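Reopening this ticket.

The earlier resolution said the output was attached, but the attachment link was broken on my side. Pasting everything inline this time so it's all in one place.
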Amino acid sequence: MRLVVVSNRVTIPERNEKAAAGGLAVALREALEKRGGLWFGWSGEVAEASAPPRIAERGNVTYAVT
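Inline output:
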């Protein structure tokens, strides 16, 4: 079973980046890494309506960012 998170904001962590202390995003990221999962979120940038989401994989987590 995979965990799926949908949020209005998400930051794709850099490779080999250590998690910051505290916060909901850190807790969600750790849960996603342990179970495997998909995080849909908005980068905060405005893009063309037809622009496909940016996909990034970090460990067990796949990020789909619009």
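Reporter confirms the inline version is readable. The chain is about 20% helix and 30% strand. The helical segments are 24-35.
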